[in-house]
Amino acid sequence: MLKFSLRARCAVAVAAVASTVLLTACAPMQQGLVKVGRSELQLPPGDWEKLEQGDSDLFNVLPDDVSHDLPMRTQAVGLRGRQGEMLAVIVVQTNASNDPRDTTLWTHTCPAQQGVQVDDFAKGSPIRIDCLRFKRRADSEDFLKKNRPVLQEWVKQNNALPLAPYSHVSYRYATAEGGYLLVEALVDQRLMRPRTVGTDQFLAAGRPAQEWLIDFVQAAKDSVAMLDGRFVVPPFPVPLPE
Question: Would you list the domain boundaries of the chain?
Answer without folding.
Answer: 1-9+63-69+82-181
